[in-house]
Amino acid sequence: MTGTAAAHYRLLVIEDEVDIRRAVGAALRDHHPAIIEASTGKAGVDAVDASHPDLIILDLGLPDLDGLAVCERIRSMTVAPIIVLTARHGESDTVALLNAGADDYITKPFSTQELAARVAAQVRRSRVPPAEHETIVADGLSIDVHRRQASRDGNPVRLTPIEWELLTVLVSDPGRVFTHQQLFTAVWKRAFGDARLYLRVHVTNVRRKIERNPADPRLIITEPGVGYRFIMAP
């Protein structure tokens, strides 16, 4: 990202601890000079409404509001990537924050280098430029892969950057079974992590948006114990 482009890419950091806000700013400001800060959940929600940030870094341990509730509220307002900072380590906690709309999370304590790498991955994912026109049509769903536009029966479908990345990988080779690890590596650009946990939550979210009946999916099919595949349903 060039200096001019970076200046127009706004990051919002919602964190009540001053030292952590300073550390995050120091790690990211060289590449992302437009950083907005908020120290409470309410201030963070207000900043999303007023400033329309391109990416949000959200601490779950806020002094005024429950962090998961803040994440859900922000997700209802924007499709911008949300990276959560959390001290919670359990599987149920991870599922809860991903269900709340987070695209990625980092457990405390964390390295600023890791945070910078996660931010860079989300920036790349959300700033894919338009390319050659390609449209996939299946079961009333129309997907313009390169323009990142989708509609069902003529109605627009809103997907987050991480959901687009996941759907793009699946539709790149219809009928092919992608293993959990293949999808995790392709979408999150990391070799290590709980692939099944990440995918279970995000596949559910994508199905809810693109399937006629998410409880009986016809497009994204589960291969038990293996992974998922996309079917060009008539």
Alpha carbon gap, first and last residue:
40 Å
The order of strands across the largest sheet is 2-1-3-4-5
CATH C-level category of the largest domain: Alpha Beta
Relative strand content: 15-25%
Q: Tell me, what's the shape?
A: globular
Low-confidence stretches: 129-133
Gyration radius, in Å: 18 Å
Q: What CATH architecture of the largest domain do you see?
A: 3-Layer(aba) Sandwich
Number of domains: 2
The major sheet is characterized as: 5 strands, parallel
Q: What structural class results from the helix and strand content? A: alpha/beta
Number of strands: 12
What is the CATH topology descriptor of the largest domain? Rossmann fold
Description:
Mean pLDDT is 88; it is low at 129-133. The protein has nine helices and twelve strands. The strands form three sheets. Strands 2-1-3-4-5 form a five-stranded parallel β-sheet, sandwiched between helices. Strands 6-7-8-9 form a four-stranded antiparallel β-sheet, with no helix packed on it. It has helices at residues 3-7, 18-28, 41-51, 67-77, 91-99, 112-126, 161-171, 180-188, 195-210; strands at residues 11-14, 35-38, 55-59, 82-86, 104-107, 135-138, 141-144, 149-152, 155-156, 178-179, 220-223, 227-230. Strand 7 and strand 8 form a beta hairpin. 42% of the residues lie in helices and 20% in strands. The chain folds into two domains: 3-126, Rossmann fold, CATH 3.40.50; 135-230, Orthogonal Bundle (Arc Repressor Mutant, subunit A), CATH 1.10.10.10. The chain is globular and about 55 Å long. It is an alpha/beta fold and 234 residues long. Helix 3 packs parallel to helix 4 (67-77) and helix 5 (91-99) runs parallel beside helix 9 (195-210).
